[in-house]
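Morning F.,

Quick status update on the modeling queue. The single chain you submitted on Monday has been processed. Sequence for confirmation:
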Amino acid sequence: MHLDPAQLSALAAVITTGSFELAAAQLGVTPSAISQRIKALENRIGAVLIQRGAPCIATPEGARLARHAADVALLERQLAAEIGQETEPVRLRIAVNADSLATWFLPALQGFEYLFDIVVDDQTHSADWLRRGEVVAAITDHTARVQGCEAIPLGSMRYHASCSPAFRARYFPTGVTADALARAPILQFNEKDRLQHEWIETNVGRPLTPPVVRIPTAQGFLEAARLGLGWGMNPASLASPLLATGDLVELPSKTPFATPLVWQVRHLTATPLAPLTKAIRRAAAQSLA
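Structure tokens below.
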């Protein structure tokens, strides 16, 4: 089956941007041209590829075609490099958890001629992006192995359950008990973030439902803890300086808390992405436990 590259590019652009207008701006054409290309591709395949809406999302067939287009682009770029031909930069979509993005991940991307498109999601859910074919690789937790992917352990990200001294004095005057934890507001990156709840279960032996304050950025999360808006699991590399100055204090824990991370990349594109995988492993080795 021959597929038109321009139509595949339009499909990928709509999926990554979420709209026909933004896809048109990305590719330097009109929204009408994008619509025509998508319609022609749908007629060629005989299936709906995009669910129109705000945002537009891929159907399962659309996601498979977009994954195919991304794979082909990477393989063609590798071939061109091997025969000494110049190529245009390839867009590389990767799912990464927010704490990795805020701490150790970005330096690993230096020096690569890719147009990186980073999707932020919790490490326990980033594997879903791989399963749907919407990314070529992902940082996941150690339990979410994806069929058809290489899974490379990176190490463990260490966390400190931490809050401001004033917050501790207000909510934990007699210690970190189950009753106090049930009342004290927790910080949460989004509704998928379960680190605080996991820490509670580890330390009191049962689940609790404390009040929640949602802060959707890693740096904002740390600042919210410093300002006393709640307590939360802050990455050790971010929290340690504030713990040293006393701006944050750590809640006592039965055991050190860490989340094992894994780099997963599809088998088909593992070879062209091998240099990036090596850089990510090197960066992780310098920062993760």
